[in-house]
Design brief:
There is one protein chain. By secondary structure, the protein is mainly α. The protein has one domain (5-44). The protein has 2 helices and no strands. The protein has helices spanning 5-28, 36-45. Residues 15-50 are annotated as: Disordered.
């Protein structure tokens, strides 16, 4: 299976932009005692299986 590095980089950049938009949207809303930023951080820093 060929791994397309350029496609992966573009997809990662799109994910970062989407995460940034979601983070701004969450910060614009009042917090309800939860920390969605931490769960989002854990989602992106969770080690992935090879």
């Amino acid at each position: 299976m060929h791994f397309d590095l350029q496609f992966a980089q573009q997809h990662a950049q799109a994910l970062r932009q989407e995460a940034a938009q979601a983070s701004r949207a969450l910060q614009a809303q009042p917090a309800h005692g939860q920390r969605p930023q931490l769960s989002l951080r854990n989602l992106f820093h969770r080690p992935r299986p090879a």
